[in-house]
Design brief:
This protein is an all-alpha fold and 62 residues long. Helix content is 56%, strand content 0%. The chain has a domain at 34-62.
């Protein structure tokens, strides 16, 4: 059984070794939400000079 898994496991290890890692963030800085998420959309709306209304946030996020 273990012999049957050797080749797929080796292929998986090779694929993971080639996958680029995430860039490190500065120690003590808060984690950033992923790009393209509803959270990022809401934060962008709230950071606008005019801000955002509850209705605008609701419409943007569904």
């Amino acid at each position: 059984m273990i012999g049957a898994l050797a080749a797929p496991m080796e292929a998986l290890r090779d694929a993971l070794a080639r996958k680029p890692g995430r860039p490190m963030r500065e120690p003590g800085s808060p984690p950033r939400p992923r790009e393209g998420t509803k959270l990022m959309a809401v934060l962008a709306m709230l950071r606008r000079p005019e801000g955002a209304t509850v209705a605008q946030v609701g419409e943007a996020t569904g």
